[in-house]
Amino acid sequence: MKRFEGKVVLVTGGNRNTGIEIVDLFVREGARVFMCGSSAASTAKGEAILRGRGLDGFTAIPCDVSDWAQVQALFDVIAREAGRLDILVNNAANQGLGHGGPLEMKPEMLWDVFKTNLVGGFQVTQTACNRFFMKQEPNPATNQRGVVVFLGSNTSMRAIRNRTAYVTSKGGIDALVRSLALDLGPLGIRVNEVAPGYIYTERWDALSEDVKARRRLNCPLRKEATGGDIAEAVAFLASDAARNVGGERLVVDAGCSAQHMPEDVDF
Ligand SMILES: NC(=O)c1ccc[n+]([C@@H]2O[C@H](COP(=O)([O-])OP(=O)(O)OC[C@H]3O[C@@H](n4cnc5c(N)ncnc54)[C@H](OP(=O)(O)O)[C@@H]3O)[C@@H](O)[C@H]2O)c1
């Protein structure tokens, strides 16, 4: 029996980088998966990559998670095609790159990032609860109606430079996860977070070997995560094995958060 046989899963931002590996894992583990990118073109591109891997058993629907109407339309498709939802993975993120430092960045950039990372994650979660989780019979193995996993970041606790909007939004996700876990837990909805550190994404392809090596030296385990590593952590929190884990932040950063200073400046 596969780990997620019979489960219906939604992965936002499931069309590239980490999100696509999360979709890949759930499909291979037997789930019926729905995924979205923010636009028709980006979603179709992700769908083609997944189909190219020989994967079936998923539906790709464009949805800008910051747009309430598009979120409702996404859930209309899930209602029509699956009629239920068991697991929501809020992975979509605006990285807030290129906004400049806090002295020059336009204040509205905060909103630009928050509307995807915080408002988007919240309204997808609220819709999942009201349209599916609250109407479903609890899973007999856990007595829970639904599971939510957010993607946060280790930068919410140890900030990175010139990413004010992103870092602040990820701090908001930490608080949002705790708040939702408290209010939704008694209703049988389990909410947690995976907080990654470095992940190898297509953005790493543009880095020099020196920069990659320096980043790896910053990791006690000497290796950035792959999308697959993050997908495994998401799968654990989404699984029945984590049935008593609520409001938790699972850091997956090769030990970076455990250190005060990286090795080459720690004399
Ligand atoms: N990469 C890292 O090193 C790292 C480190 C710590 C935490 N994280 C977190 O881990 C998660 C995955 O990271 P990643 O680097 O793989 O992300 P990414 O490469 O930046 O991809 C972001 C994904 O979110 C989607 N997205 C963005 N805005 C959206 C919107 N308004 N509506 C729907 N989808 C939207 C994108 O779709 P489009 O293709 O349509 O733009 C894309 O699929 C994110 O939550 C990120 O913050 C990443």
Mean pLDDT level: 97
Cα-based radius of gyration, to the nearest Å: 18 Å
Strand adjacency order, main sheet: 3-2-1-4-5-6-7
Low-confidence spans: none
Number of separate domains = 1
**Element-level helix/strand string:** EHEHEHEHEHEHHE
Which homologous superfamily in CATH is the superfamily?
A: NAD(P)-binding Rossmann-like Domain
- Name of the CATH first level: Alpha Beta
Number of helices: 7
Instruction: Tell me, briefly, the overall form.
Output: globular
Kindly state the number of beta strands. Answer: 7
Q: What small ligands are held by the chains?
A: NADP nicotinamide-adenine-dinucleotide phosphate
Q: What name does CATH use for the topology? A: Rossmann fold
Taking the alpha carbons of the first and last residues, their distance comes to 51 Å
Helical content, roughly?
A: 25-40%
